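During data preparation, we tokenized the protein backbone, and the record follows.
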Amino acid sequence: MRLSRHAVAIIVTTALAAPAPCAAQEPVIAFWQLRALLNPGDTIWITDAQGREIKGRVGSLTPETIALEGDASLVFGAREVHVVRRRNPGRRTWTGAAVGAIAGLGVGIAACAAYPKDDPLRGDACLMAIGLTWMPGFGAGALVGYMFPGKKQVVYRAPASPGGQQALLRVAPIVAPHTKGVAVAFSF
């Protein structure tokens, strides 16, 4: 199967435009840093000092407090908040759109491969097949990504209390040309 220059250009452009996977983001441990991550109106879940999880929309943020909007406005101080979680639907939507576009592009390429090779209109038909299949895939993938936003992401985790202990275990792979292994760090 030989692809025309147009089809190769579309494939390369789609591959370069696909979003790159992001590394997992560590939650912030300073309460004042939440102002950089949350905006008024964002839906969040707060786990308070008693272990209750409260869902609400961010009303206002100060370096010492976070206020939730709703039927009963709630204000939490930095000492009362243990964990703050949120969903990030935008990232999931773009990932779904990219996967859908690539799947649609694959369908278009398969349709192009099935087209008779001796037909003089094959190049235009292939370009049309690819152009008409990746866009619906893009839209369907974006819709699926938006409808299923994924699990909650921890954006803030309170540091351990002075009287309590917090153990931390970190495991990281080590891969080099002549070395393979695992680095393990344990602190408390």
Q: What stands out?
A: Residues 4 and 100 are 23 Å apart (CA to CA).
